[in-house]
Amino acid sequence: MPAASVFTLPxxxxxxxxxxxxxxxxxxxxxxxxEAVARELGIPAAEAWEAARSSHEFRxxxxxxxxxxxxxxxxxxxxxxxxxxxxxxxxxxYAPPASGDEQPFPAEMVREAGPLLGPTDRTWxxxxxxxxxxxxxxxxxxxxxxLRGRGGAYFPTARKWRAALRHGxxxxxxxxxxxxxxxxxxxxALLCLRPERVVEGLAIAxxxxxxxxxxxxxxxxxDPAAEAFELALADSPIAGQxxxxxxxxxxxxxxxxxxxxxxxxxxxVPRPRPPLPVDSGLFGMPTxxxxxxxxxxxxxxxxxxxxxxRALGAPEAPGTRILSLSGRVERPGVYEVPLGTPLAEVxxxxxxxxxxxxxxxxGGPSGGFLPGGLAAQPVLPGRYHPTGxxxxxxxxxxxxxxxxxxxxxxxxxxxxAEQSCGKCTxxxxxxxxxxxxxxGNPADLAEDLLDAIQLASLCGLGQMATGPVRSAxxxxxxxxx
Length: 481
Ligand code: SF4
What we know:
Blueprint: H1 15-26, H2 31-41, H3 45-53, E1 67-69, H4 72-75, E2 85-87, E3 110-112, H5 125-133, H6 135-145, H7 157-165, E4 172-177, H8 186-193, H9 195-209, E5 213-218, H10 223-234, E6 243-246, H11 256-263, E7 287-291, H12 292-304, H13 306-311, E8 313-314, E9 317-318, E10 320-327, E11 333-338, H14 343-350, E12 359-362, E13 368-371, E14 395-399, H15 405-419, H16 425-439, H17 447-456, H18 460-463, H19 466-475
Parallel strand pairs: 1-2, 3-11, 4-5, 4-7, 5-6, 10-14
Antiparallel strand pairs: 8-9, 10-11, 12-13, 12-14
Helix pairs in contact: 1-2, 2-3, 5-9, 5-12, 6-7, 6-9, 8-9, 8-10, 9-10, 9-12, 15-16, 15-19, 16-17
The protein binds iron/sulfur cluster.
């Protein structure tokens, strides 16, 4: 396989790496520096500027003061002060309040490990088996295991791979390690502590899909995770075959097509569907985007077999899931549990017993709040409550209610308004209205505004932005009156 290089992709795929390099050198971007990059690459300056402005981690003036986290776990901490330079989340929700650069994920914050987070033997047994049995049998094994994507949508992985393969044309494979949801830090845990398992899963996916290009897209701030992954990759059988790509932020990059636009050097906004990425994704190629945890599960399946994978979890959702727990718990961190485990059991073990657990936020800014007494559902894909709470990417924040609810709901509403990419009107105009009404007079919040945002927004960010607001108002209306 030829060595991976950004030069094998169309020229505009060099835009984001070039902007990131400029940003690192200068500390911020200016119209002149963006124009210079655009000129070098032969891209219209307006398009380069548009791409730069859509990336939330870029600054456009000299930074003044230290960046500190304004995410939910930090905002609830007694030591929290409104930061001079607020960050939506610094992903150290297990040790609030957080400031400065990202740190390696601490091993002691792995509270419960299973096949994904447990130790690796540093062999490539899963990849060797994949090579022995061939692509068709690899796909069968993934299908038999019942693996569903762990990014939050839970789409069957084998079905996604087959959908891309059926075109018979060159495929792009993208590992999504953008992980931009406040309160979720499990991909960072995997990449920092078990990078070999993720690399092996990626290698197996490459074996099955024979992609023309493979990209590992890692959050632009997650340097320790990127370094650990890069080291493991360099020491692996797929060394030199994967193009490393760093992001520049944006919760919307959780939407696959926005991520592909970012790689293509375009404004990082979702594309209308259809076409689906598996039909026409990166530069028009059928494209498979898989989350880090999904790829780690692929490695487990090829090593231990589909039956062993299915032995843990629920029949409709086999395997384990890594939960990120933070907020008012004694033992925050990551918990790898079999799917189907009652959430209340995990919360008890984490030190948030039922009698003290007044509320939980499930699913972050796209999910919703639940009174602690209702947090008894099994850990399974889907909604926990019609007002919004859901498993999503596995972020669980424990709260005191009603004391924390107002601040937590405002933090989520502010995050969604800030992260709206602005492409569609219901989300662009609606999410600031949600924030304004929540902070002022929620009685002004017409049900049809909530419905319009939920039903008419283009992507999940807008469609699910109403969850934290609806659920907070449904369960604790007195807090906002
Ligand atoms: S819903 Fe929001 S984030 Fe999604 S495309 Fe519309 S404006 Fe952008």
